[in-house]
Amino acid sequence: xxxxxxxxxxxxxxxxxxxxxxxxxxxxxxxxxxxxxxxxxxxxxxxxxxxxxxxxxxxxxxxxxxxxxxxxxxxxxxxxxxxxxxxxxxxxxxxxxxxxxxxxxxxxxxxxxxxxxxxxxxxxxxxxxxxxxxxxxxxxxxx
Length: 143
What we know:
The structure is a single chain. The chain has 143 residues and is α+β, with helices and mostly antiparallel strands. Helices cover 32% and strands 15% of the residues. It contains five helices and four strands; from the N terminus they run ααβαβαββα. The chain starts with a helix and ends with a helix. Strands 1-2-4-3 form a four-stranded mixed sheet, with helices on both faces. It has helices at residues 3-10, 26-29, 71-79, 93-109, 133-140, and strands spanning 60-64, 83-87, 113-118, 121-125. The chain folds into two domains: 3-38, no CATH class; 49-140, SepF-like protein (Translation Initiation Factor IF3), CATH 3.30.110.150.
């Protein structure tokens, strides 16, 4: 066999169809069935809604912020299931924007509600809480 014929056969272009090394083995390629005992739930450290503490009637908590570092207080109170009124009137303009963005993230993550009450006042309510903004305004003393 010449070198040219060997190359043709190697690439499958020759007349010889020698497939000595290639044996199709259906048993080898058969997929193993997946057993349900392999599919166990994994805990990645996330807390799910069923584990959150939500009070039957949410408590109204007003937090007057003076710096963005205090955002954690808002997040913790909201996570506990409270209705949180944020007073951001004492924050610098840049921190006001950051605080509203933070509250919007909390709202999205915990499926809550976020409403503007007045200039510099926002209310953050947990999922399922009935939100009466006029009543909240009256309770905290803003018009």
